[in-house]
Structure to design on (427 residues):
């Protein structure tokens, strides 16, 4: 079977975006679930979100809304009312997962199994199956003991977790999962922590989103600003091979794709400042915000995206590529050299032994091949079994893409950058 949904999927997107997700759909052709999704997407010919700009090259294809199915009930008695974390509950850099734990969609202590992450991200926000599988399995391998991992720091015996290097959690995964230039979190080597919400950064996000609404467009502009700000202020700023190239875009696009409220009038979702505030645990009002750590909350009367168009890997990759097309610096792996404004990109040809080249990363399947294979090369200080879990997850995402095979990366250039070579101390 041969499917070519790309142009249908991407409508009037820029040409380089048009090239690649085809193969993902080809890979999906043997999977009935993914195929059904692809067919849904194909109905979307030529439509783009009203008023969307270049960052929104992928629109929500199916203008359906079913209030009953999409309503997330967090009222008293639902079993999912908001309960703030206690002293023994783990919380970390991901507001989405923190909120899930605060509402008991994930275990309230913040330590969950890979399966729980997969199920919950689909059920509560409509993450697609491939993306959920990859993110969750990767968490198990990089931050946990394959089966379970912590959304915060190292679990204690109390949480039933594995301690030490097998239980470092999202907080302890700097440059592997967690990275610099996050939307509302500080850079580890600048502030001494990588997970606490910074009110000023939240305010900037709002300031970059005029008219009361946060959009993919405004988030992409804000990301560019955050990137430049960190180059200008953090002597150790580092844009990592995986944490920078693939996790950083997720940290921005997830805000709109997963936190927006859906309705019959706006099936693609709208994200008001108030809804954003709730998800991020920020009190007060515009110009007088106050981030209160641990209070991430799913808004009352909130409707998630429709499961008929889950946000899966092809969507996410298209969003990431569209953003990189607008701001090519996002793909610059590299960092400052110990002083501000000294950003030195590494040579991608040297890094990958000639398998990839900077100039062609946005062509064909190259971005997907490059970014996901770098994930397998994150070279966690871990054991073989964990590494093979990562390799398997990467293999699943890339199967059928005919990627040029990246066997190893040459870390010599990276070693010269202090943001890479420094040993993290977590606050
Ligand atoms: C298993 C699924 C998930 C994993 C493994 C995961 C992991 C992470 C990690 C490692 C970070 C830190 C990235 C950085 O340093 O900037 C992060 C940040 C973030 N995540 Fe998640 N996440 C998941 C699901 C979600 C969901 C479902 C949402 C939305 C509801 C979400 C929203 C965000 C946002 C907005 C940030 C950026 C926070 C900020 O700096 O302002 N994530 N996540
Ligand atoms: C939400 O849950 C509460 C408590 O179980 C229930 O009374 C209410 O009917 C539910 N709301 C909807 C719209 O299902
Ligand atoms: C979501 O949209 C619906 C329909 O417009 C509205 O009733 C509800 O209050 C909104 N929820 C949030 C959290 O804004």
């Amino acid at each position: 079977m041969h499917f070519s949904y790309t142009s249908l999927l991407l409508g009037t997107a820029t040409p380089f975006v048009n090239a690649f997700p085809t193969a993902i759909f080809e890979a999906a052709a043997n999977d009935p679930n993914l195929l059904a999704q692809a067919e849904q997407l194909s109905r979307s010919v030529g439509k783009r979100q009203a008023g969307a700009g270049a960052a929104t090259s992928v629109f929500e294809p199916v203008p359906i809304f079913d209030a009953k199915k999409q309503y997330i009930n967090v009222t008293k008695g639902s079993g999912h009312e908001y309960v703030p974390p206690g002293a023994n509950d783990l919380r970390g850099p991901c507001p989405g997962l923190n909120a899930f734990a605060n509402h008991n969609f994930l275990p309230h202590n913040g330590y969950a199994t890979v399966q729980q992450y997969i199920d919950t991200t689909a059920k509560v926000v409509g993450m697609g199956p491939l993306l959920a599988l990859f993110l969750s399995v990767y968490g198990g391998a990089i931050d946990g003991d394959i089966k379970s991992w912590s959304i915060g720091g190292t679990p204690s015996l109390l949480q039933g977790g594995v301690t030490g290097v097998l239980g470092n959690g999202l907080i302890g995964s700097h440059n592997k999962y967690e990275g610099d230039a996050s939307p509302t979190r500080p850079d580890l080597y600048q502030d001494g922590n990588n997970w606490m919400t910074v009110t000023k950064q939240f305010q900037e996000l709002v300031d970059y989103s005029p008219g009361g609404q946060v959009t993919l467009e405004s988030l992409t502009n804000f990301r560019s600003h955050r990137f430049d700000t960190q180059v200008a202020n953090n002597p150790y700023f580092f844009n990592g091979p995986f944490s920078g190239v693939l996790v950083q875009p997720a940290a921005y696009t997830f805000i709109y794709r997963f936190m927006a409220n859906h309705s019959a009038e706006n099936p693609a979702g709208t994200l008001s400042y108030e809804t954003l505030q709730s998800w991020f645990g920020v009190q007060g009002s515009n110009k007088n915000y106050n981030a209160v750590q641990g209070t991430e909350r799913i808004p009352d009367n909130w409707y998630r995206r429709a499961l008929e168009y889950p946000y899966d890997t092809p969507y996410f990759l298209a969003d990431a590529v569209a953003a990189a097309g607008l701001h090519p610096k996002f793909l610059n792996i590299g960092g400052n050299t110990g002083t501000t404004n000294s950003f030195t990109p590494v040579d991608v040809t040297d890094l990958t032994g000639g398998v990839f080249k900077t100039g062609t990363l946005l062509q064909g399947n190259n971005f997907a091949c490059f970014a996901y294979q770098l994930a397998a090369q994150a070279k966690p200080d871990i054991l073989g079994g964990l590494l093979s879990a990562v390799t398997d997850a990467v293999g699943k995402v890339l199967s059928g893409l005919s990627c040029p095979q990246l066997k190893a990366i040459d870390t010599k250039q990276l070693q010269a950058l202090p943001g890479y070579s420094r040993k993290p101390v977590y606050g």
Summary: The pocket of protoporphyrin IX containing FE (ligand 1) is lined by residues 93-97, 117, 121, 125, 127, 135-136, 139, 170, 177-179, 182-185, 247, 251, 254-255, 258-259 (CB under 6 Å).
